[in-house]
Amino acid sequence: MATKEKLSKSLKDKFRDELTEQKTKEKLERIEANKKLNEAIIYTNKDHKLCQSVITHFTQEGIPFVEKEVSTNEAEWQKVAATTNLAAVPTVIAGNEYFVHQRDFQNPQQLANMVIFHSSPDFQIPYFEDKLLERLKTQNYNLWNKLNILEQKISPMIQFIENLQKQLALEEDSE
Q1: pLDDT over threshold 80, residue 1
Q2: Model-level pTM?
Q3: Which of 33, 62, 91, 153 counts the most CB atoms within 10 A of its CB?
C-alpha cells in the first residue's frame, strides 16, 4: 500500500512539475511577443489599487508602457478626460484607442488583452465611419438586451397589478 501511495505522489509531483514548466515557458513566450508591441500610455493615481494592479500586471507580462500620474500631468490628463468624458483611472491609450476602467474593462487581464490587440505593430486602425457605425450597432444591441431584461422583470409586476385591478372591479360590482 505504501508503494502505491509513493508512486501516486511521485506521478502527481512529476505532473505538477511538467505543468509548472509548461506555464513558465508559455509566459516567457508571451513576454517575448509583447516586447514587439507599441508602447501604451497609462494614466494613474498613485493611491488607486487598480492602477497599481495594472502596472504590476503589465510589467509581469512585458507589455511596454509609460505611466503618467494624473496629478503631475494635469493638462494632459484634462485633455484625456475631456476626450473620454470620464475622469476615471486607470485610463489607457493604445493604438489611438482610449480604454477607461468600468466602461471598457473590469480587471488588469481584460485590459491587457485589449492593449495587446491594439498595440500590435500590425494593427490596422479602422476608418472612423466604420468604427462609429459598428459602435452604434453594439450600443443598440446592448440597449436592446437591457430593455429585454427590464421587460422580463416588469412583466410579472404588470400582470399582478392588472389582476389586482380586476379583483377590485369585481369586488366593487358585487357590492
Answers
A1: no
A2: 0.71
A3: 91
